[in-house]
Amino acid sequence: MDGFEDDFTGDAPGAGGVGEHLWLADDHRVWDLGPATVDTDADGVRDSLSRTDADGLTVFTDSDRDGGVDRITRIATDGSVSSSVYDRETGRWSATKPGRLR
Ligand SMILES: [Ca+2]
Ligand SMILES: [Ca+2]
To answer: How far is the CA of 2 from the centre of ligand 2 (A)?
Structure first.
C-alpha cells in the first residue's frame, strides 16, 4: 500500500480513479465532465469518457492522469475522425492531422 499515493486533495479513496471527475479547460472556464468511465490504454485507470450527440461520438481523454482532459477525439457519424490535443506549454488546443496514424 505504501508508495502508491494520490496527489488529489480530499478523500480520494485510492481505488484506481473511480469517482474522479475529468475537467476540461476552455478559455477561462473549466468544465466538469463527470467521472471517467473508459480506460483507453488498459493501464487499469479510467482516463476517458465519451459523449454521443447528433453529430457522432466525442471522447475526452486525460492521458497524463492529472484530471484535466488533454485529448479530444471526435468520431463523426460519417466515420471521419478528428482529434485535438492540449499543449500544456502554450495552453492551446491544436488539431492533429486526421488520417495519419504515426
Ligand atoms: Ca488508462
Ligand atoms: Ca491531463
So the answer is: 24
